[in-house]
Amino acid sequence: MDKVPGPGFFAGVTPLLLESQQLTRQLVTALSRLSTSEYATVPGSRSTLDTLTAAVSSAALVSTHLAQAIAVNPLVGVSLPGTAVDEGAIRQARETDARSSIVECLTEALHDLDLTATCCSYAATGIDRNLDQAEAAMSLPELTAKQAVSLAGLAKVTHALDRERRR
């Protein structure tokens, strides 16, 4: 992306701001769904939900930093009439002042985007681990004799069909 202040920078950063807002929306939706689902009853889910909350926060900060970059970016405009000013010199001074602020905003946005990705990765790993542990801890109901016979018959039929398919 072009980091030179002005209309070109504004055109380049605007789609990024809108994408970061979309990312925040998606993370809030995922957090809302998970926190109100059966997953919230799984041991270890609190830590994962907290991590996903951190992802929402850091994604929102990405949007904030990009909005700050837009705010410090000087756009081309003309001063009010009545005073003689050197528009070129004013524009040049505003761009010089804005350059370091824009770089700082983009650096912070990139850092927070990286943090968002890390939090999402940790949350996904936590969800997978928590569900595996919950599944392993679940006790299965005892089968009746009739259910066991039916299950064995189904296994034989499935095995026979599998052999036929391999031929």
Tally of individual helices: 4
Q: Determine the N-to-C terminus distance.
A: 58 Å
Q: Note the main sheet.
A: none
Proportion of residues in helical segments: over 70%
C-alpha geometry: elongated
Strand composition percent: under 5%
Query: Oligomeric state of the chains?
Result: single chain
Q: List SSEs in N-to-C order.
A: HHHH
Overall residue-averaged pLDDT value: 85
Task: Please state the CA-atom Rg, rounded to the nearest Å.
Answer: 28 Å
Structure class: mainly alpha
Number of strands: 0
Low-confidence parts: none
Description:
There is one protein chain. With 167 residues, the protein is mainly α. It contains four helices and no strands. The protein has helices at residues 7-35, 45-72, 87-137, 145-166. Helix 1 (7-35) runs antiparallel to helix 2 (45-72) and helix 2 packs antiparallel against helix 3 (87-137). The longest helix has 51 residues, at 87-137. The protein is elongated, with a radius of gyration of 28 Å. The model has no long low-confidence stretch (mean pLDDT 85).
Task: Provide a brief overview of the structure.
With 167 residues, this protein is mainly alpha-helical. It has four helices and no strands.
Question: What's the helix and strand layout?
Answer:
Layout: H1 7-35, H2 45-72, H3 87-137, H4 145-166
